[in-house]
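S., here's the first fold you wanted:
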Amino acid sequence: MSYNPSIYEINTRVFLKRFGNDAKVSEVPEEIWRRLADKKFDFIWLMGVWKISSSSVEKYCFEEYLIKNYSRALKNWQKEDIIGSPFAIDVYEINESLGSVDDLINLKAKLNRKGIGLILDFVPNHFNAETSLLKINPGIFLSVDKESFLRDPHTYYQPDKEQEKYFAHGRDPFFAAWQDTIQVNFFSISARNYLTNVLLQLTDVCDGVRCDMAMLALNNVFKNTWSGVISKNNYEPLQTEFWSEAIQKVKSIRKDFLFIAEAYWNLEWELQQLGFDYTYDKSMTDRLRSGYALAVKEHLFAEKEYRSKSLHFIENHDEERAFTSFGKEKSKAAAIIISTIEGMRFFHDGQLEGKRIKLPVQLGKEPPEHSNSEMIEFYNILFSVTANDIFKEGTWSLLETITSWEGNTTFKNMLAYQWMLGNQKRLVIVNYSDVVSTCRLKFDITGYPEEFEMEDLLNNQKYIRSGEEIISTGLYVELKPWHAHIFSF
């Protein structure tokens, strides 16, 4: 039996300001959590709760491209609105402006009583460039020689001008180094032990972690990213993978602790094999954004084990808002798909209200935006439909769409699949295109009478359909652009 949970991401530092400039996580109104529980969210991800180094904000957060992003998101922003990246962590202690560790533990207990788990950030690849760990545990970071620093002062840096010690900034191999970070050395036993101990401690504070850029910790990725430094400093590659060791140790203490990987570069399957419960499915996001139903359908042919461990989203804090990048109607169709296929279903704070503005993570203030009543109503209906256990515990199967008459090619625009749980059935059909499309569908109706009722839960319509027609030629379906049915029968 598969399990297909849903998760809701909150930009914590910005979110709390809705309840007062100095609001703590303990002061969020009960009604907020109750509404999310009513929508059957299984997890809430509080993004950005950890302590950062305030001194690094002035030094690293006012580069030209960042300033442009701030101005695009929030007109007339002030310098004090820039609060630093939540992914450049000083230490894994709650940011004191948000509350205390007891506040987090109490919130976890409160959410658990509502059937919701608490997810927090784990950023394995790097810490803040000015982390206090440099003074007490410098051996966990990737050190370099002076020559390397002088040759490339953008990738490498000297934290203390009075000490001849040089380190690498954290980086993704396809982009320039992140100036506000320091790179962890994954070929250091002490670094791995430190990170594993952090995870073990977090089992008391939350119910799982979303692991930032998880693939950067893989041995081959780390080796290829830092090959020059590794060979020059004679760092010995380790035979075992960090993730397999760390996840195994944590799961031995707490089996239900959830590991979610932000992952790209077709390394998702490898991370799943190392123990991750779910991995980002950016490929699905890109295929949905492209608007080609066949591309989406091809992705759904993946092995069940992979599909069921994939996390599906159409927006998050790194992506443009779905309403902006997809458009209103297309974003609705995409939301229906990610809500009704196997795997983890991911939603971002503001998505359900149709917000349009992507907020840079360094910005601590959000712009005023009107909620879109049509999007609110749409998501309320969608969540009322998907709240049924069939979408979490049922068996999913993809159906073949058939042309409805010779020469018709619009059947290729239609996605169709079925859920079954006991005597319950759901049939989901989505026209994922910008033209009116038609198709026919054949599906199992064993035990049904010649004429039976099909109720469209999404559109509050009921139809009487012929069993003979479904068996012989297939159920005829016609849908407007980006429209869908979710039938119960």
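And the second, which I think is the more interesting of the pair:
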Amino acid sequence: MTGQLAEKWEALLASLRGMGPSVIAYSGGVDSTFLLHAARVALGENVLAVTATSPTYPRSERDEAERIAREWGVRHRFIESNELLIPGFSSNPPDRCYHCKKELFGRIEAIAREEGYAAVCDGSNADDLNDYRPGRRAAKELGVRSPLLENGIAKEEIRALSRRFGLPTAEKGAFACLSSRFPYGTEITAEALSRVEACEEILRGFGFRQFRVRVHGGVARIEVGREEIPRLFEAGVSEAVHEGFRRNGFLYVSVDLNGYRTGSMNEGGLVGGPPPDL
């Protein structure tokens, strides 16, 4: 571990100890898993991991989060959260994530308050300042702490530290809720989310590490890491992917030659622009 990385790790632990008993908003992704590991190192048993299950959260992600928490012996709780019932969410406005996070963080904050935890923390990292993240506004409004961001820890540093500590998510692909697969203004339904989840499971089954299935009407736009694009055209893979996507209601299946990148649905511009504080 480099000197700078070691310093950030120690600063993170000190920050968590200063917060006291904490609830971690835990999805099982790279960032929240690393944060949960740091919290259990810093706080011991004074940690509760809370995972929200919903139509936007794939079953495979839920199962992995549950397995890791169980293996680590961390107290772990699931709460049901159906974002489609939140006013202002299913119409998919540019600030969709604000409405979702406001509801989620509000429920987690209530758990923390009722059970005597001093802080609620999420896994936002320093790189999240470089993209449009309306959920950050909800976190600020509800006093949610972001220890990784506060200590200047970026994604690649999280991966490096995760490898250093042998965390199972060190090489896991980035994940965002399934709602991020739809252009702003496109209605999000339970059926549409289910179709996307099924198609992404096809890609997962072929061993792709980083992938997204973006929806444009009857067209599915596949994003995978650039180094993985050739695999989509291997014998047996392209046929199975095309057939599976067609079976799930897509008329055409395309491959994005730019490959996977965070926030590609923002590239067309945001209606009205982002709020001024983001």
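Why I say that: The chain has two domains: 3-164, 178-261. The first strand starts at residue 22 and ends at 25.

Talk tomorrow,
H.
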